[in-house]
Amino acid sequence: MRTEEARTLSGRLIMGGFSGTEPDDSTTEIISRGEMGGVTLFRRNIEDVQQVIELNSKLRSLSRNLPFFLIGIDQEGGRVARLARPCTVLPPARELGSLKRPDITGRAGFLTGSELNSLGFCLNFAPVLDISADDAKSVIGDRSYADNALDVFEHAMAFSRGLEQGGVISCAKHFPGHGCTAVDSHTGFPKVDRSENELLDRDIVPFSMAIQSGIRAIMTAHVVYEDIDKELPATLSPAVIRRLLRHRLRFDGVVFTDDLEMQAVSSRWDYGEAAVLAFEAGADVLLICSSAQAREKALKGLSDRASSSSMFAAILEKSARRLERAYASFLKTQAHFEADWIGSEAHKKAQNAFYSELCNK
């Protein structure tokens, strides 16, 4: 594969980020050249509703000639939420799960999805399918809906369906289960010593059920599952992604990595090396959410390998086809909410009904 072609293909499989409320000149140029497949927005990028609408409109305009461009966000609710009022403020997943009313959780997903859609997002990195362990020890804690597989599945899928009915793609996380880890992969290197059978009987169950129910996208965990792969975290492990997720669970949707800038990966692998390992393991899209330098290193690692290896180039091409197929399928059924949906009388009425149900339970 020619170097220029390899660079473009590689770039479209990376979701980047930037620091301000508008993309800097370098990011603007990279998107316009087709060397970035999307961005993830954080609180640092957000001032208010109107600013987000204008920002996302600009991003879509810059990428209008690309086959796809993903604008994503982490809007779970609770402590992981980038948008504040007048968007719906959700309680932690654990609080929703404790109600034993998946219909209310589904309504929360629909409100969130409709708001994100009206703001110009197409992807939400939610819901969490992790089963929580002891909250005092678990990093995930109240981000998990429950401490058992069935409740986690029912509430997470209700939220996922609500998101998609509202007009955004949902992405379940963190495969094959982050609920029992006490170490935060943002700052450390978590390991899980449960056997593969124990994981299959507990932690993986919500993911397996979600796959059977048609979940479109899954995010991996930067966690080492020692019985499956003693050296590599799930994000970089063929044993976890290809053997377990792709082959055993038969998932053919889009696999996103968690942010490669997190210390569990970045402190041990160069970005170029980690990027190549992730695709060889079976991932489809890399998240590199802050550093332009890190994104460029990953891009170079991928494009260099694709230029020199037809086998690796074929891996990237398959991921691009999978992503294009999923995005095109989503667009065919996507709901559409106008930019003025948030704050409208209909929106306020839906919010008030939701808040009322929460207060009465």
Strand order of the largest sheet: 7-6-3-2-1-13-12-10-8
User: What share of residues is helical?
Assistant: 40-55%
Provide the β-strand percentage band: 5-15%
Terminal Cα span? 59 Å
Q: Could you please say which CATH topology applies here? A: TIM Barrel
Layout of SSEs?
Elements: H1 3-11, E1 14-16, H2 25-32, E2 38-41, H3 49-62, E3 70-73, E4 75-77, E5 80-81, H4 93-98, H5 102-119, E6 123-124, H6 149-166, E7 169-170, E8 172-175, E9 191-192, H7 196-201, H8 205-212, E10 217-220, E11 224-225, H9 238-248, E12 254-259, H10 263-266, H11 271-281, E13 285-287, H12 292-308, H13 310-333, H14 345-359
Condensed summary:
With 361 residues, this protein is an alpha/beta fold. The chain has helices at residues 3-11, 25-32, 49-62, 93-98, 102-119, 149-166, 196-201, 205-212, 238-248, 263-266, 271-281, 292-308, 310-333, 345-359; strands at 14-16, 38-41, 70-73, 75-77, 80-81, 123-124, 169-170, 172-175, 191-192, 217-220, 224-225, 254-259, 285-287. Helix 5 (102-119) runs parallel beside helix 6.
